[in-house]
Amino acid sequence: MKLLCKHETCLLLFLVLVQIFGLEDDSSRTTTEICSTHTILPGPKGDEGQKGDSGDMGKQGKVGPMGPKGDKGAVGSSGDQGMMGKIGPIGRKGDKGLKGFSGASGGKGKAGAVCDCGKYRKVVGQLDINVARLKSSIKFVKNVLAGIRETDEKYYYIVQEEKNYREALTHCRIRDGILAMPKDEASNAVIADYISKSGLFRVFIGLSDTEREGQFIYADHTPLQDYSNWKEGEPQNVTGEEDCVEMLSTGKWNDTECHLTMYFVCEFPKKRK
Ligand SMILES: *[C@@H]1O[C@H](CO)[C@@H](O)[C@H](O)[C@H]1NC(C)=O
Ligand SMILES: *[C@@H]1O[C@H](CO)[C@@H](O)[C@H](O)[C@H]1NC(C)=O
Ligand SMILES: [Ca+2]
Ligand SMILES: [Ca+2]
């Protein structure tokens, strides 16, 4: 009993009893009562026991509290150089500087190469000729449109360019015409009116006695027929060089020198022969 009550088994037994009978307070008291009432008086103290073996190593202790802040350390060594930074924004435009001194004049240039321009010059020359011809043609057409006279058979046109007789002949011919040949009163009147209305005094007509003095022949090589309209006293062969004929604004004819220059009248047939 003594062993029973002092030992854990005794307590365990009482706990079992408590569980069985559901008496907490009573059972604890009962246990005490049981153990006290059944206690036997202790014996004399025993001899000191042998020294026990050293126990196992204890468990690792808990982490201690944080220690106090340490003293400030010495300045560290300088670090490596950092990478180059990004390019900054473009700055504002600076003020205009003062004008610099003018530099020394450059050296003389090298002599140019000789150009083989012969053929080009020839082409350009031909172009000039063509342009001149074209201009002449345009002027002719313009003047034709400005004023022209006609009969049933022919057109008459006064070219207002001063030419000598030969040039006048050519001028009419290259335009498929001929220096005007008044062969009757009607055509002579048309030309005369044309001259006076144009405000002119005289023009060459296609009549001359170049081949044989006194034998006047038209530009188409036909001789004077039954019509002529000489001014009184003409042809008079004054200088011996009056082989070409001009018509005055009155319609009268006068033999005159062929080298003189004046306007002239061309005629163009309406029907091609
Ligand atoms: C015209 O003059 C030339 C040169 O003086 C002369 O030879 C010719 O006989 C003259 N003709 C007439 C018809 O007078
Ligand atoms: C006729 O021709 C001659 C010679 O060119 C000239 O001297 C004379 O003035 C002319 N006559 C008229 C009326 O123009
Ligand atoms: Ca003559
Ligand atoms: Ca004359």
Automatic annotation (TrEMBL):
GO terms for molecular function: chemoattractant activity; D-mannose binding. The keyword Disulfide bond applies. It is found in: Secreted. Residues 37-78 are annotated as: Disordered. Pfam families: Collagen (PF01391), Lectin_C (PF00059). Residues 151-267 form the C-type lectin domain. It comes from the Eukaryota. Keywords: Calcium, Collagen, Disulfide bond, Immunity, Innate immunity, Lectin, Mannose-binding, Secreted, Signal. GO terms for biological process: complement activation, lectin pathway; cranial skeletal system development; positive regulation of opsonization; proteolysis. Residues 1-22 form the signal peptide. Its main location: secreted. GO terms for cellular component: collagen trimer; cytoplasm; extracellular space. Residues 45-56 have a biased composition (Basic and acidic residues). Belongs to the COLEC10/COLEC11 family. This is Collectin subfamily member 10. The lineage of its organism: Eukaryota, Metazoa, Chordata, Craniata, Vertebrata. The gene is COLEC10.
